[in-house]
Amino acid sequence: MDAIQSLLAGFDTALTPMNLLWALIGVTLGTLVGVLPGIGPALTVALLLPVTAKLPPVSAFIMFAGIYYGGMFGGSTTSILLNTPGESSSIITALEGNKMARKGRAAAALATAAIGSFIAGTIGTVLLTFAAPAIADIAVQIPPGAKFALILLAFVTISATFGGSPLRGLISLLFGLTIGLVGTDLQSGQARFTLGFPELLDGIEFVTVVIGLFAVGETLYVASRLRKGGANVIKLAGNARMNREDWRRSWKPWLRGTALGFPFGAVPAGGAEIPTFLSYTLEKKLSKHPEEFGQGAIEGVAGPEAANNAAAAGVLVPLLTLGLPTSATAAILLAAFQQYGLQPGPLLFITNTDLVWGLIASLYIGNVMLLALNLPLAPVWARLLLIPRPFLYAAILVFSTVGVYSLNNSVFDLYLLALFGVIGYGMRRFDFPVTPAIIGVVLGPAAESLFRTAMQQSSGDVGALLRQPLTAFLLLVVLAALVVPQVLKVRARRRSAQP
């Protein structure tokens, strides 16, 4: 009952005219960036961090939430009409959805993706409404040592999940942790990793890092490959719509995809990629038309799209209750909280009730807005795919530069932006995932602070961490996450080498 009462109070906040306007701006921008290839919600929220610094926190996060959910909705358009997944979680949608579009069924593919996203997003938000307060009540009692171990677990699992190589993921994480430690140590007063530059004594602005790695790095990477072929966009005639048979074949995959996606999104390193692949495999096994898979099966679009959006709702559970981001967008949202002097976690539900519940309530509103935007306006969004890439990425580069310069009016920040842009390009070029680096920058200082607090409470006794049952268990899981996959790989190699 407390959750329902809090949610109703949240609707009072979210339904004010200004916050409704920000929600509409957010979902429209989110759909826009989801449709445009290579631009996602993480990059968009990062670009808007300098602009929204003067906004009230509730309004800013309602807009950010709209961008986040809108990006999940809009990503299916690119996958279906262009066969170019903007996010790794949309690969399966491209596999079946583009085949449907080539058979003249683009409208049905877009409709099942949009309606499935709405259903999954709404169910996921309901689960978030009731799960988040319960987890927050438990999380208040977690000691600093266990919170430190939990962050370590997130570091290891996220580094191993993103990208093709766990080693590259860990290197990316180490780079992010190093950047997060630049500046003056508040406890000892010592300068760390400043290389003699006084401008670095206060640390590096997170916005500079994330815009450099995401926006500038992506722009350089796309520009280096722009001449490798033009876009082949399938034309869409009329609105997104489904016939009775499409509805019959889609509603069960929507529900099954939702059931798979939410729990994966809510755990560290779960993400949306695994449940979308699991949903596709499950639908193929359960389908009465398995021969259509690989040729344009509507179940292969409905299930994975629902799993994708349910996972997006699940990601907000650890972010709001524990302060743990499990995706790139969640990491940037965490940085946005810190920009306002807020720390997501169990106390956020007590100290900033209006913000938390206004944000959750806005997710329900945003889902309805997104359905209204995506079904009748599908041809409009499809036309956005015809925007020339050079114009698009040149605009991103200009906006990135202006946004970073506006933070401190510092030319030195522009040099840092260019440096991180080149590093971001190199990471993409050599297949180093960017997400672990971003999470390292955001969570590194928090992990250091929690470790120091735990050491102060135990008078410097590191062994005290192992004597706390929860902390010891989490550290054991961290060790298993590092060792077990390697052991399994060695065993697999030995078995394959045997005659």
From TrEMBL:
UniProt cross-references to PANTHER family, sorted A to Z: TRICARBOXYLIC TRANSPORT PROTEIN (PTHR35342)
Xref: Pfam families: TctA (PF01970)
Origin species: Deinococcus arboris
Keyword Transmembrane helix: yes
Transmembrane parts of this sequence: 20-49, 61-82, 106-136, 148-167, 203-223, 315-337, 357-377, 384-405, 411-427, 434-451, 471-488
Keywords associated with the record: Membrane, Transmembrane, Transmembrane helix
Name used for this protein in its record: Tripartite tricarboxylate transporter permease
InterPro entries referenced in this protein's UniProt entry, alphabetically: DUF112_TM (IPR002823)
High-level lineage: Bacteria, Thermotogati, Deinococcota, Deinococci, Deinococcales
Occurrences of domain DUF112 (ranges): 20-439
